[in-house]
Specification:
single chain, about 425 residues, alpha+beta, two-stranded antiparallel ribbon, about 60% helix, elongated
């Protein structure tokens, strides 16, 4: 909640006055405190309570000196900002020093007890040399422990430093960058795989977003220009001409509907990459037969028929229906009144095959490699008149690939086309 502040009496004041914090109204201060308390209570309620592990708790009490050292280092590593290599080196050196000191103290104590039978002067001289030697050895062992810790931590940190360097190179213009595989079988390998998968998803999302923006700006440019042109024409001299007024209204409505369809298809295309399949077992022949019957009831002037029998498949039913409808809509657009459109299905090995065949205008050989590209139209003038946005086949291909299938086409100019979906 924002704090309400008292208005200053003068708009222009000294630098010190402007820099001073404004006073808070008492009522607002109370409300602010109440809000903070409420937030704390909500956080306390939502924060899961940690369950104490009694086994570890008992062990920590039994081995208190060791656990105390561990907790001390844990606290120090949080408070002191040092590299992991330095922290590991200090830990190794400390542990080596403590262990060696304990060992040396134990040895010297044992020797002192045994030297009681010797002369006092000889024993004192021997113990002095022994203590000096022990101090030197402890220092040497601490240095060896530090060296081992430094070498070990440097070796373990090398892949992480390489990962950090590669991550720094990742940017909006270089999302194809991936981390190199680490030559280990531990958490670093899992981390590398997870980061690469995240980068794959990020690149895919960014690419879909970029495609959506470029596609929308590319395809919406024409209908917007048409709408602006007719609006300007109506503003200048079309108000008093009923015939021009009717023509303009029809054109504006048609272009608005075209824009609506383009936006819906673009949104669907952008969303397909994030769709998750909802698999179920169903009779594909029965579902496709129902789709054909629905088109027959719409009376679109074409002769639709279905060829197929009962075929049990396990896939996403809605995706399957959407892909077939897109192919039937495409066939209707490019098939003259009275033309024939056949929808069929059959078993194909361990998978299934669906086809949509028409005797429409067909496509030339040079157009076939490009028909699944965004906004590609074989005959741009006829496609636009038929209400085609050039996205239907792109959406169909994306849906089929999401289901794990493939789509291909055979066509001949003036004789018709046959689209085939292979499901595995």
């Amino acid at each position: 909640m924002d704090e309400k502040k008292l208005p200053t009496e003068n708009t222009v004041g000294s630098a010190n006055e402007s820099a001073s914090a404004p006073e808070v109204l008492p009522a607002d201060a109370d409300k602010h405190e109440d809000a903070l308390e409420t937030i704390k209570e909500i956080k306390a309620e939502n924060t899961p309570k940690k369950k104490r592990n009694w086994f570890l708790f008992v062990l920590s009490i039994v081995f208190f000196p060791v656990t105390g050292i561990v907790l001390l280092f844990k606290w120090a590593t949080r408070k002191i900002k040092l590299s992991i290599t330095i922290k590991t080196t200090v830990i190794f050196a400390f542990l080596f020093g403590v262990l060696m000191s304990i060992y040396v103290i134990f040895i010297i104590s044992s020797i002192e007890n045994r030297l009681s039978a010797f002369g006092e002067a000889d024993a004192g001289s021997y113990l002095l040399r022994l203590k000096i030697t022990s101090v030197i050895l402890v220092a040497a062992f601490i240095a060896v422990g530090a060296a081992i810790g430094y070498i070990a931590s440097t070796y373990m940190m090398t892949p992480i430093r390489r990962m950090i360097k590669q991550i720094d190179e990742v940017g909006a213009d270089n999302l194809s960058m991936r981390l190199d595989d680490v030559d280990t079988q531990d958490e670093l390998k899992e981390l590398t795989v997870q980061i690469n998968e995240m980068l794959d998803e990020l690149e895919s999302t960014f690419e879909r977003q970029s495609n959506f923006i470029s596609d929308a700006s590319h395809e919406l440019k024409t209908p917007i220009s048409v709408i602006q042109g007719y609006a300007n024409m109506l503003k200048r001299w079309g108000k008093s001409d009923p015939e021009l007024l009717d023509e303009s209204i029809d054109t504006l409505l048609a272009e608005a509907e075209n824009m609506k369809r383009i936006v819906q298809q673009l949104l669907l295309l952008a969303k397909i990459g994030n769709l998750s399949m909802s698999k179920e077992v169903f009779d594909m022949g029965g579902v496709l037969g129902d789709v054909v019957e629905q088109y027959k009831m719409a009376d679109n002037g074409r002769n639709l028929s279905f060829e197929g029998s009962e075929i049990l498949v396990e896939t996403d039913k809605n995706m399957l229906i959407e892909s077939v409808r897109a192919l039937v809509d495409n066939a209707i657009k490019y098939t003259a009144d009275g033309g024939n459109i056949v929808v069929g299905c059959k078993k194909n090995g361990e998978g299934a095959e669906i086809w949509v065949e028409d005797n429409g205008i067909g496509m030339s050989a040079e157009n076939l490699p490009h028909i699944f590209e965004r906004f590609y139209r074989c005959d741009k003038s006829r496609s636009r008149a038929a209400g085609s946005s050039g996205l239907g086949l792109t959406i169909t291909k994306s849906i089929v690939e999401t289901m794990g299938g493939k789509i291909n086409v055979k066509s001949e100019l003036g004789k018709g086309s046959r689209f085939t979906i292979q499901l595995y």
